Amino acid sequence: ILRGAMSIFDPLGFVTPTTIKGRMLVQDIWRTKISWDEVLSMELTIKWQEWLEEVKQLQYFKIPRCYFKELQVEEMELHIFVDASEEAYAAVAYLRHMYVKDSYKTMLIVARAKVAPLKPSTIPRLELQAAVLGCRLAHSIERDINTSFDRRIFWSDSMTVLHWIKSDPRNFKQFVSNRIGEVQELSKTEEWR
């Protein structure tokens, strides 16, 4: 199961919704504390079989090879969306082009997701981890494609995280403070929505 869950090669994260489910299943199995050779419970076996069926469907997944039309790009924006749940947190990046004749093209360029730590954490802390992941993603995109964007916009549905990002990191305990500091270092507060 571990080998299967970790065997999908997806450097750009286009199939992250599938790969994160496999990693979450491995974590669920780990929580049961069964040994390597024990038989899985029926519930976990069913989850594993459902995940394998989802993986089979990936053979039909197609992605465009070209990010740019031949038209002249007037404005280029990077949109990063971040979110979290009790099970995982993620960031996804979209490139948005505005062309000369007011036409637009938006495309997924990369996604990242991480399984939430085994030690329970609050949703706001996980949302903050997603914000850090989003900032790191934006930084690596700009470095890797050697492009500056006309505008970067970071999107979060967490009012708590948006408030934290606009606050002085020294007002918080170490975990939150360190992550706020990193977000503020890699992004501008006015880029957050």
TrEMBL record:
<dbReference type="InterPro" id="IPR008042">
    <property type="entry name" value="Retrotrans_Pao"/>
</dbReference>
<dbReference type="Pfam" id="PF05380">
    <property type="entry name" value="Peptidase_A17"/>
</dbReference>
<protein>
    <recommendedName>
        <fullName>Reverse transcriptase/retrotransposon-derived protein RNase H-like domain-containing protein</fullName>
    </recommendedName>
</protein>
